[in-house]
């Protein structure tokens, strides 16, 4: 009893305005702005320190891990170069965060929740570690071991931490808070993409067809993949929050940023996702609420139509260039897919492993793993039947969670749109094989669906208990 009282002492003394701040858009925006400043200047010490101090304060004063969401997701975006070694000294700015984490885990008690994705993720970890068993050379296996461990266990680590230490608060629910983080995550990514265009000043006819966005920590495909997951979240907020016009505009910007990455998958599935999301938002809102969503979307559509009409010939020519169909197939992916099938046939149970040294993927310098450029073929070629079973169970459990209460849980509905766009794009790319931040983000979104499902079920049970019997 004394321990419980002691643990409540700090949150009880924390002023309400400070607690409210950590659950507000303002806190998330400050972190996003700090990350952008560090990325833009390539001098991240000050943003490291500012974000670290804010996070430490939240960890000490709040009995809740949810305010770490923007820290977890935004952190990689601060690295403007692929080689993080030059940042090691500046990373000392993270020391307050480390202190805050230690304090939080020691001082506050965990509050375990149902976490249905633990076993499926462990099966994926096992499949990745077994990939190539019996055929992969020792040096190739060891060259990808760290990456396999990250892919299997890093999403699980964040999932467990959030599942144990996230608590309900009086200011905002799990779904709304995660959606706010997602919306500003998209704005941060879009700001970095736009800044890249301003800095590099590429010719318009080279966008996506000669010039590719490279933010250091990730390329155009990585950014588009994250935005496909994040963009529908703004329309969830537009559906449940009083600031409907504001979040609708942010949602439009999120989808627009997906398009201007000039990732072909981003253009295709971002457009499809935007149409589906807007239609669902209009269908599930009524009266003035629907109008507040409809008007900004109608203005955006009119603006896009006007630009298209004004520059129709140039845009059509550029679209044809982006499609890039020639005698070798669509971007050479057909050869990679055929190679994955051959790899599966050579070792059907375990595949050839992520360290496979193939013929058709031009590996960048320093990259030890092989991309078949499709989640399905990556699983098939690298992990064989064992991987197919593991990922099959993973997807069955994931979509069982997402679809379980989709008719009454609006967060699950909009998360489902993001997941479908993400999975569709991952058939052409391999976002599901990027451990951090993509798979960490997807796993945490999956977890918030679990939380909101449980909240929806509890609310339904309470309503039924108090309703008069007929």
Detailed description of the structure:
With 470 residues, this protein is an all-alpha fold. The protein has three domains: 1-109, no CATH class; 116-166 and 332-458, no CATH class; 174-328. The chain is built from 18 helices and two strands. The protein has helices spanning 2-13, 16-22, 25-41, 45-61, 69-74, 95-107, 118-130, 138-165, 174-200, 220-240, 244-260, 264-284, 287-310, 312-323, 333-346, 375-404, 410-426, 435-466; strands at residues 325-326, 329-330. The protein has a two-stranded antiparallel sheet with strand order 1-2. A hairpin with a 2-residue loop joins β1 and β2 (329-330). The radius of gyration is 23 Å and the shape is globular. Mean pLDDT is 90; it is low at 1-5 and 325-329.
